[in-house]
Amino acid sequence: MSFEIILHDLVEHVPHSVGAILVDWEGEAVMEHCHCDPYEIRFIAAHKGIILARLKEMQSAAQIGEVEDVVVTSSVGHLIIGCIDQDYSLVMNTERRCPVALALYHFRRAIGELKKEM
What we know:
The chain is 45% helix and 27% strand. By secondary structure, the chain is of the alpha+beta class. It has one domain (3-117): Dynein light chain 2a, cytoplasmic (Beta-Lactamase). Strands 2-1-5-4-3 form a 5-stranded antiparallel sheet, with helices on both faces. Strand 3 (69-73) and strand 4 (77-83) form a beta hairpin. The longest helix has 18 residues, at 100-117. The termini are close together.
């Protein structure tokens, strides 16, 4: 299954999703599928590296195991960030009314599919 199909299926199966983007270690977009201006999702994804770096610092200090994914909830939405491998991450943006558990289920399935494609 191609990256494009995986991202399309993720965004289309999650109600109230804004978009999803596959990014490399530098925060550069590899591919995205979104219901917004692609610049918006690319801008969000470029900053995911800062969030992941801080979480990895905390993880190594606390010795709690590797960070797999994280959900950041704001007043307007949810941002889900997940590690595919050392070099690539998946970022998904949803509206606040999106059911987070359902989004995480589909997000984690997409991570699994992307790992197979790498």
